[in-house]
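Open question from group meeting: does this chain pack into something compact, or does most of it stay loose? Before anyone orders reagents, we agreed to write out a predicted structure and look at it together. Recording both the input and the output here so the notebook holds the full record.
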Amino acid sequence: MLVTGATNGIGAASATALAKAGYQVIVHGRSDARCALVVEAIQAQGGTAQAELADFASLAQVRDMADRLAPQNIDVVVNNAGVWMNEAWETEDGFETTWQVNHLAPFLLTQRLLPALLKRADACVINISSSGHRSGRIHFDDVNLQRGFSGLRAYCQSKLANVLFTQELARRTQGSSLITHAVDPGAVQTQLLAQTGFNVPAAKPAGETVGRWLAAVLGPEGRDSSGDYFEPDGRRSEPSTSDTELAARLWSLSERQVAT
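Structure tokens returned:
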């Protein structure tokens, strides 16, 4: 079980909950010290965890991490790592940071782990999206938003990309043992939420929220189909779009971008 962005917030809470459920958890993060804190906390509660370092603002580091993990018989990937940028910054790969970290990095990671995942009997890819995807649009001619950047536009675009990626991954792996779902984790008290500047009184601690959707996605009902969208309480719902042409177009663009 791999959880990306697992050093705080939703990722740390997910890794902790999954370790309690008996999974051997790989805690991904950018900081050795912060990964170690989560690993130690899980081990102190009797769980099994190890750390894995990679900065998702570097596609080379994502490739290296995937190559290290591919032989480890991972059966579940939780693509949780994400950022909110109040200013436009390009990564070393030339992409706007939100687009790369929130979409291209998990796309590349999953793609490179896919051959190994397809060999597992009960493989699952969970992509953490957001209700913000409903306000998103994929700017195919300007994904870096050079003609009008805002943190909100970039974030909502990336969260819509998570949903479309989930749908196309489900289509491409239909008939295999792999299932994939997108999840809206709800309003959670995280560092990312604080960066947005939004005041969300209803936001809850991550530890109080992850259990419901994790149980739904990884439980028997989650295996009934693939490519679905789950609400924070574990209910399936309709995302803003199920446009197969749009999802396929995004996949093709993403393949070209991660190949550079």
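Observations to bring back to the group:
The chain has a mean pLDDT of 93.
The first strand starts at residue 2 and ends at 3.
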